[in-house]
């Protein structure tokens, strides 16, 4: 009888083969040199096939599952668990954004405390942004007595005065999670051959310590439908101007209620081996209001031909750099 393989087993095979191909390169040396292993792309700890049974290696949904992600890669249990609360922060931020921007239909979940009477959990929704009309929907089961008290308070003239407590989420936790999503999308496209480059050391250090501010710039780009349409979805390479050659990763976050938020993150490529220089380049493009760029679109696929050619990212990068130099000279 043919045994059906799990998604975790299939991805383990895929990444183990990719790692084996990377190790064949004469300039790459790994210690310990073990066969049939995978490496967590965030902490760089290695795991053999027993990690599947003891659950020390896990499926990683990119983006997070609650934001429309699919299982695209593997991370270790500890790195996955580290981001569970940050995934919830990001989901709340995406869900709350339409309301905070005053868009009709935008809503938030809140705890409402009446000025004179019992409180209740509810959803507050923008009905009209012009006159700031809101619709308050009760979200919890309440007793008849509780309901009557709320109704009595609402019938009073001063009952409209209430306190809405909305949790403020740290901006840094959202930023580091967006960078993590972009990094893992890049990893699922090009594999180990790319992320072993020295330019990703500082980035991984930041991802492994999400509460610290290690990166001086997050590489987050302001997105609108005009500058990043669907043609940019997935991994792109900015090859001109040469001063900001980098990866541009564009992705959507989608809540279960249908709210969609598009994001773009710039990450260093396998170019200049100097972290401060790379970060300076990212600062330049993030600070500029308008930058004319030329982009090579890789796409949104994972585990494709790039995995069979584990150093293909370097070849593409070199070719685009030569193209950029030709553009500059001419």
Secondary-structure map:
Elements: H1 7-23, E1 37-39, E2 46-48, H2 50-53, E3 57-62, E4 70-76, H3 77-82, H4 84-100, E5 107-114, E6 120-128, E7 133-138, H5 144-155, E8 162-165, H6 171-190, H7 192-195, H8 201-208, E9 220-221, E10 234-240, E11 246-254, E12 260-267, H9 275-287, E13 294-299, H10 305-308, H11 312-329
Antiparallel strand pairs: 1-2, 3-4, 5-6, 5-8, 6-7, 9-12, 10-11, 10-13, 11-12
Helix pairs in contact: 4-6
Give an account of the 3D structure.
A hairpin with a 5-residue loop joins strand 5 and strand 6. Helix content is 37%, strand content 24%. Helix 4 crosses helix 6. The protein has a five-stranded antiparallel β-sheet. The protein is built from eleven helices and 13 strands. By secondary structure, the chain is α+β, with helices and mostly antiparallel strands. Residues 326-330 have low confidence and may be disordered.
Tell me the number of strands: 13
Spatial sequence of strands, sheet with the most strands = 9-12-11-10-13
Alpha-beta classification: alpha+beta
- Shape summary: globular
For the report, how would you describe the main beta sheet?
5 strands, antiparallel
Low-confidence stretches: 326-330
Radius of gyration computed on alpha carbons: 24 Å
Give the helix level as a range of percent.
Answer: 25-40%
- Tell me the span between the first and last alpha carbons: 64 Å
Order of helices and strands: HEEHEEHHEEEHEHHHEEEEHEHH
Average pLDDT score: 80
Number of domains: 2
Strand content: 15-25%
């Amino acid at each position: 009888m043919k045994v059906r393989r799990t998604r975790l087993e299939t991805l383990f095979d895929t990444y183990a083969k990719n790692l084996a191909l990377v190790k064949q390169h004469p300039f790459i040396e790994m210690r310990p040199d073990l066969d049939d292993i995978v490496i967590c792309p965030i902490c760089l700890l290695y795991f053999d096939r027993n990690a599947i049974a003891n659950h020390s290696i896990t499926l990683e949904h990119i983006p997070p599952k609650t934001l429309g992600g699919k299982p695209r890669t593997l991370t270790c249990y500890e790195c996955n668990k580290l981001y569970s609360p940050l995934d919830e922060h990001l989901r709340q931020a995406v869900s709350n954004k339409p309301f905070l921007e005053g868009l009709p239909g935008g809503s938030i979940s809140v705890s409402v405390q009446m000025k004179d009477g019992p409180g209740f959990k509810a959803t507050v929704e923008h009905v009209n942004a012009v006159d700031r009309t809101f619709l308050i929907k009760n979200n919890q089961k309440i007793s008849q007595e509780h309901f009557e008290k709320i109704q009595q308070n609402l019938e009073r003239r001063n009952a409209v005065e209430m306190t809405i407590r909305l949790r403020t989420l740290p901006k840094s936790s959202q930023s580091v999670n967006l960078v993590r999503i972009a990094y893992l999308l890049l990893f699922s496209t090009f594999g180990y051959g790319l992320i072993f480059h020295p330019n990703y050391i500082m980035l991984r250090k930041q991802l492994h310590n999400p509460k610290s501010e290690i990166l001086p710039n997050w590489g987050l780009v302001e997105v609108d439908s005009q500058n990043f349409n669907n043609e940019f979805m997935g991994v792109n390479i900015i090859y001109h101007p040469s001063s900001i050659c980098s990866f541009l990763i564009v992705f959507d976050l989608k809540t279960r209620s249908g709210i969609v938020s598009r994001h773009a993150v710039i990450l260093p490529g396998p170019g200049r081996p100097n972290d401060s220089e790379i970060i300076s380049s990212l600062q330049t493009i993030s600070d500029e209001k308008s930058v004319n760029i030329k982009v090579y679109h890789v796409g949104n696929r994972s585990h494709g031909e790039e995995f069979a050619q584990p150093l293909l990212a370097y070849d593409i990068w070199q070719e685009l750099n030569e193209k950029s130099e030709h553009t500059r000279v001419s």
